[in-house]
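Annex B. Sample input.
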Amino acid sequence: MAEKVKEHDFVKVNYTGKLADGTVFDTTEEKIAKENKLFSPKMNYSPATVCVGEKQVLPGLDEQFNGKEIGKEYAITLPPEKAFGKRDIKKMKIVPMGTFREHKINPQPGLQVDIDGEMGLITRVSGGRVIVNFNHPLAGKEVIYTFKILSTVTDTGEKVRSFLSTMLRMPEENIEVIVSGETATVTLPVEFPVQISSILAQKLMQVTGLKDVLLQKRGSEAKSLAK
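Annex B, continued. Sample output.
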Protein backbone atom coordinates (compact mmCIF):
# COMPACT_ATOMS: atom_id res chain seq x y z
CA MET A 1 0.00 0.00 0.00
CA ALA A 2 1.31 3.47 -0.93
CA GLU A 3 2.41 5.72 1.92
CA LYS A 4 -0.05 8.49 2.71
CA VAL A 5 0.60 11.89 4.25
CA LYS A 6 -0.84 12.85 7.62
CA GLU A 7 -1.05 16.08 9.60
CA HIS A 8 2.27 17.45 10.90
CA ASP A 9 4.25 15.33 8.45
CA PHE A 10 7.06 17.32 6.84
CA VAL A 11 6.98 16.76 3.10
CA LYS A 12 8.80 17.89 -0.02
CA VAL A 13 6.29 18.93 -2.66
CA ASN A 14 6.28 20.44 -6.13
CA TYR A 15 3.23 22.49 -7.07
CA THR A 16 1.97 24.83 -9.76
CA GLY A 17 -0.96 27.23 -9.53
CA LYS A 18 -3.04 28.28 -12.55
CA LEU A 19 -6.10 30.38 -13.26
CA ALA A 20 -9.11 28.86 -15.02
CA ASP A 21 -7.78 30.16 -18.38
CA GLY A 22 -4.49 28.29 -17.89
CA THR A 23 -2.40 31.30 -16.81
CA VAL A 24 0.32 30.13 -14.42
CA PHE A 25 0.85 32.43 -11.44
CA ASP A 26 2.86 30.26 -9.04
CA THR A 27 5.25 27.31 -9.31
CA THR A 28 8.13 25.62 -7.51
CA GLU A 29 9.64 24.36 -10.78
CA GLU A 30 12.16 26.42 -12.75
CA LYS A 31 11.26 24.88 -16.11
CA ILE A 32 7.57 25.78 -15.71
CA ALA A 33 8.48 29.29 -14.53
CA LYS A 34 10.61 29.87 -17.64
CA GLU A 35 8.01 28.41 -19.99
CA ASN A 36 5.38 30.77 -18.58
CA LYS A 37 7.63 33.86 -18.31
CA LEU A 38 7.49 33.84 -14.50
CA PHE A 39 11.15 33.13 -13.91
CA SER A 40 13.00 35.37 -11.45
CA PRO A 41 16.68 34.90 -10.59
CA LYS A 42 15.82 35.93 -7.02
CA MET A 43 13.57 32.90 -6.56
CA ASN A 44 14.77 29.51 -5.36
CA TYR A 45 13.05 26.98 -7.60
CA SER A 46 13.04 23.66 -5.77
CA PRO A 47 10.51 21.42 -4.00
CA ALA A 48 8.96 23.22 -1.04
CA THR A 49 9.36 21.69 2.41
CA VAL A 50 6.00 21.98 4.15
CA CYS A 51 4.67 20.94 7.55
CA VAL A 52 1.20 19.65 6.68
CA GLY A 53 -1.59 21.41 8.55
CA GLU A 54 0.45 24.50 9.46
CA LYS A 55 -0.74 26.64 6.51
CA GLN A 56 2.79 27.26 5.25
CA VAL A 57 1.31 27.38 1.76
CA LEU A 58 -2.11 28.58 0.61
CA PRO A 59 -4.53 27.19 3.26
CA GLY A 60 -6.82 25.55 0.69
CA LEU A 61 -3.81 23.81 -0.85
CA ASP A 62 -2.44 22.78 2.53
CA GLU A 63 -5.74 21.07 3.39
CA GLN A 64 -5.42 18.92 0.28
CA PHE A 65 -2.06 17.40 1.27
CA ASN A 66 -3.52 15.45 4.19
CA GLY A 67 -4.25 11.86 3.19
CA LYS A 68 -2.63 12.06 -0.25
CA GLU A 69 -0.25 9.39 -1.58
CA ILE A 70 3.44 10.12 -1.93
CA GLY A 71 4.61 10.12 -5.54
CA LYS A 72 1.16 10.57 -7.07
CA GLU A 73 0.21 13.72 -8.99
CA TYR A 74 -3.02 15.51 -8.12
CA ALA A 75 -5.03 18.36 -9.63
CA ILE A 76 -7.43 20.33 -7.44
CA THR A 77 -9.70 23.33 -7.95
CA LEU A 78 -10.03 25.88 -5.17
CA PRO A 79 -12.93 28.36 -4.95
CA PRO A 80 -12.04 31.96 -4.01
CA GLU A 81 -12.81 31.44 -0.31
CA LYS A 82 -10.28 28.58 -0.21
CA ALA A 83 -7.72 30.47 -2.29
CA PHE A 84 -7.09 34.23 -2.15
CA GLY A 85 -10.45 35.25 -0.74
CA LYS A 86 -13.51 36.94 -2.17
CA ARG A 87 -13.29 40.52 -3.38
CA ASP A 88 -14.13 42.79 -0.47
CA ILE A 89 -15.45 46.29 -1.23
CA LYS A 90 -14.21 47.37 2.22
CA LYS A 91 -10.66 46.87 0.96
CA MET A 92 -11.16 49.62 -1.63
CA LYS A 93 -9.91 52.64 0.33
CA ILE A 94 -9.50 56.34 -0.31
CA VAL A 95 -6.03 57.59 0.56
CA PRO A 96 -5.35 61.36 0.70
CA MET A 97 -2.98 62.74 -1.92
CA GLY A 98 -0.92 64.22 0.92
CA THR A 99 0.07 60.75 2.07
CA PHE A 100 1.82 60.13 -1.25
CA ARG A 101 3.39 63.58 -1.34
CA GLU A 102 4.93 62.97 2.09
CA HIS A 103 6.76 59.96 0.63
CA LYS A 104 7.54 61.70 -2.69
CA ILE A 105 5.36 59.29 -4.68
CA ASN A 106 3.46 60.34 -7.78
CA PRO A 107 0.32 58.16 -7.66
CA GLN A 108 -0.77 56.68 -10.98
CA PRO A 109 -3.38 53.98 -11.78
CA GLY A 110 -1.71 50.56 -11.84
CA LEU A 111 1.05 51.50 -9.38
CA GLN A 112 1.56 49.05 -6.51
CA VAL A 113 2.08 50.81 -3.19
CA ASP A 114 2.80 49.95 0.44
CA ILE A 115 0.55 51.85 2.84
CA ASP A 116 1.35 51.22 6.51
CA GLY A 117 2.73 47.78 5.68
CA GLU A 118 -0.23 46.75 3.51
CA MET A 119 0.24 46.27 -0.23
CA GLY A 120 -2.35 47.80 -2.54
CA LEU A 121 -2.92 48.76 -6.17
CA ILE A 122 -3.89 52.28 -7.21
CA THR A 123 -7.02 52.07 -9.35
CA ARG A 124 -8.01 55.74 -9.68
CA VAL A 125 -6.64 59.22 -9.04
CA SER A 126 -9.17 62.03 -8.79
CA GLY A 127 -8.37 65.47 -7.46
CA GLY A 128 -6.93 65.17 -3.98
CA ARG A 129 -8.04 61.56 -3.53
CA VAL A 130 -6.47 58.28 -4.54
CA ILE A 131 -8.44 55.03 -4.58
CA VAL A 132 -6.31 52.04 -3.59
CA ASN A 133 -7.43 48.41 -3.88
CA PHE A 134 -6.03 46.34 -1.02
CA ASN A 135 -7.60 43.09 -2.22
CA HIS A 136 -5.16 40.38 -3.29
CA PRO A 137 -4.70 40.57 -7.10
CA LEU A 138 -6.25 37.08 -7.36
CA ALA A 139 -9.12 37.74 -4.94
CA GLY A 140 -12.43 36.47 -6.28
CA LYS A 141 -10.80 34.02 -8.69
CA GLU A 142 -11.04 30.24 -8.82
CA VAL A 143 -7.58 28.66 -9.01
CA ILE A 144 -6.29 25.24 -10.03
CA TYR A 145 -3.27 23.59 -8.44
CA THR A 146 -1.38 20.53 -9.58
CA PHE A 147 0.96 19.00 -7.04
CA LYS A 148 3.07 15.95 -6.30
CA ILE A 149 4.36 15.08 -2.83
CA LEU A 150 7.83 13.71 -3.53
CA SER A 151 8.88 12.45 -0.11
CA THR A 152 8.62 12.89 3.64
CA VAL A 153 11.36 14.58 5.67
CA THR A 154 12.65 12.53 8.59
CA ASP A 155 15.74 14.51 9.65
CA THR A 156 14.84 16.60 12.71
CA GLY A 157 17.40 19.29 11.98
CA GLU A 158 16.02 19.75 8.48
CA LYS A 159 12.50 20.01 9.91
CA VAL A 160 13.55 22.75 12.34
CA ARG A 161 15.45 24.71 9.67
CA SER A 162 12.63 24.57 7.12
CA PHE A 163 9.94 25.47 9.66
CA LEU A 164 11.86 28.47 11.01
CA SER A 165 12.81 29.57 7.50
CA THR A 166 9.13 29.77 6.59
CA MET A 167 7.99 31.36 9.87
CA LEU A 168 10.75 33.97 9.95
CA ARG A 169 11.10 34.45 6.16
CA MET A 170 14.79 33.75 6.58
CA PRO A 171 17.08 31.73 4.26
CA GLU A 172 17.77 28.25 5.65
CA GLU A 173 21.51 28.80 5.29
CA ASN A 174 21.25 31.49 8.01
CA ILE A 175 19.84 28.98 10.50
CA GLU A 176 22.18 26.55 12.27
CA VAL A 177 20.63 23.57 14.03
CA ILE A 178 22.35 20.95 16.19
CA VAL A 179 20.18 18.09 17.45
CA SER A 180 21.28 16.01 20.41
CA GLY A 181 18.77 13.40 21.52
CA GLU A 182 15.46 15.22 22.02
CA THR A 183 17.02 18.69 22.27
CA ALA A 184 17.75 21.09 19.41
CA THR A 185 20.10 24.05 19.71
CA VAL A 186 19.23 26.72 17.15
CA THR A 187 21.59 29.54 16.26
CA LEU A 188 20.11 32.56 14.45
CA PRO A 189 21.71 35.75 13.09
CA VAL A 190 19.33 37.91 15.16
CA GLU A 191 18.00 37.86 18.71
CA PHE A 192 14.26 37.84 19.40
CA PRO A 193 12.44 39.01 22.55
CA VAL A 194 11.96 36.20 25.09
CA GLN A 195 8.20 36.10 24.48
CA ILE A 196 8.63 35.54 20.73
CA SER A 197 11.47 33.06 21.23
CA SER A 198 9.29 31.09 23.63
CA ILE A 199 6.43 30.93 21.10
CA LEU A 200 8.85 29.73 18.40
CA ALA A 201 10.32 27.07 20.68
CA GLN A 202 6.93 25.78 21.79
CA LYS A 203 5.72 25.56 18.20
CA LEU A 204 8.85 23.71 17.12
CA MET A 205 8.40 21.20 19.93
CA GLN A 206 4.77 20.71 18.92
CA VAL A 207 5.46 19.93 15.27
CA THR A 208 8.74 17.99 15.64
CA GLY A 209 8.26 16.07 18.90
CA LEU A 210 11.39 17.58 20.46
CA LYS A 211 11.42 17.95 24.26
CA ASP A 212 13.48 21.13 24.33
CA VAL A 213 14.60 23.84 21.91
CA LEU A 214 17.46 26.19 22.78
CA LEU A 215 17.52 29.45 20.82
CA GLN A 216 20.51 31.73 20.65
CA LYS A 217 21.90 34.59 18.64
CA ARG A 218 25.17 33.77 16.90
CA GLY A 219 27.96 34.47 19.38
CA SER A 220 25.75 34.32 22.52
CA GLU A 221 24.72 31.63 24.99
CA ALA A 222 21.76 29.34 24.30
CA LYS A 223 18.77 29.43 26.65
CA SER A 224 16.16 26.74 27.24
CA LEU A 225 12.61 27.91 26.58
CA ALA A 226 10.81 24.66 27.35
CA LYS A 227 8.01 24.86 29.93
